[in-house]
Amino acid sequence: MEETKQIDGHFIKSGFGSEVYATNSLLHVYATSGSIESARLLFDKVLERDIVSWNSMIDGYTSVIQGVKPNNVALASTLSACSYLGALDQGRWIHAYIDRLGLEIDPILGCVPVDMYAKCGDMEEAIEVFKKVKKIQVSLWTALISGFVIHGRGREALDWFENMQMVGESIQTMSLLLQF
Predict the structure, then answer these.
(1) 76 neighbors 104 (Cβ within 8 angstroms)
(2) How far is CA 33 from CA 20, 60, 136, 166, in A?
(3) Could you tell me where the beta strands, DSSP code E, fall in the chain?
(4) What CA–CA distance (Å, rounded) separates 100 from 84?
(5) CA distance 128 to 114
(6) Quick check: 178 pLDDT over 50?
(7) Is 130 within 8 Å of 118 (Cβ atoms)?
(8) Containing H/E element for 102?
(9) What residues contact residue 56 under an 8 Å CB cut-off, 6+ apart?
(10) How many angstroms separate the CA atoms of 79 and 71, rounded?
(11) Which end of the chain lies in a sparser environment, N or C, as judged by fewer CB atoms within 10 Å?
(12) pLDDT tens column, 79-137
């Protein structure tokens, strides 16, 4: 690592500090050799960040967190991002990962997969996940019903709304309308 720091100093003294290829090479060495702090300092100084710069940082952070399992909040946030991006395949992979980990499905981790499948248009899978949740809350109903509405399946949305009312769940119409 000492040699890398000497090269870094030489780059700066020689005027190569702003050269994107040289900087990316140095950034990659820092990031992949476990010196993520030095990589971050260099990354923050880089004026022209390109895909190589970003990938080096991602690789570096990935190597730092290997072996660390994400918690419910991290997984819910990632699934939520998939739903907004329409990234159904990635969302399916994360959902399968949650199943493999055997995590306890809390109200948030129960709702987010339903929301993701619904927003991505896989209503059948959204229904399957919905049926597996032990404690169904209003947010879960709203995610499912919203999915039907978003995809122009108004009759089914009304049917599920009626189902919700039949099981005694109360929802203010305004909170449902605010989802749209």
Answers:
(1) no
(2) 20, 8, 47, 59
(3) none
(4) 24
(5) 9
(6) no
(7) no
(8) none
(9) 24, 27, 28, 31, 32, 39, 43
(10) 12
(11) C
(12) 999 898 889 999 999 999 899 888 888 888 889 999 999 999 999 999 999 999 988 88
Per-residue b or e along 95-105, where b marks 16 or more CB atoms closer than 10 Å to that residue's CB: beebeeeeeeb
- Best CA proximity match to 144, nearest among 156, 126, 162: 126
* SS3 label, residue 134: coil
Helix (H, G, I), strand (E, B) or coil at 100: helix
Could you tell me where the DSSP H helices lie in 66-106?
A: 72-85, 88-101
CB 130 within 8 A of CB 114: yes
Could you tell me which residues come within 8 angstroms of residue 102 by beta carbon, excluding any fewer than 6 positions away?
Answer: none
Closest CA to 76 of 98, 43, 53, 46: 98
Q: Tell me how far apart the alpha carbons of residues 144 and 134 are, in angstroms, rounded to a whole number.
A: 15
Phi, psi (deg, nearest 5) at residue 8 = -60, -50
Would you say 83 and 116 are in contact if contact means Cβ atoms under 8 Å apart?
yes
Instruction: Tell me which amino acid residue 49 is.
Output: R
Alpha-carbon gap, residue 131 to 133, rounded angstroms: 6
- What token pair was written down for 135? 């404690």
* Residue linked to tokens 């699934």: 79
Longest dimension (CA), the chain: 75
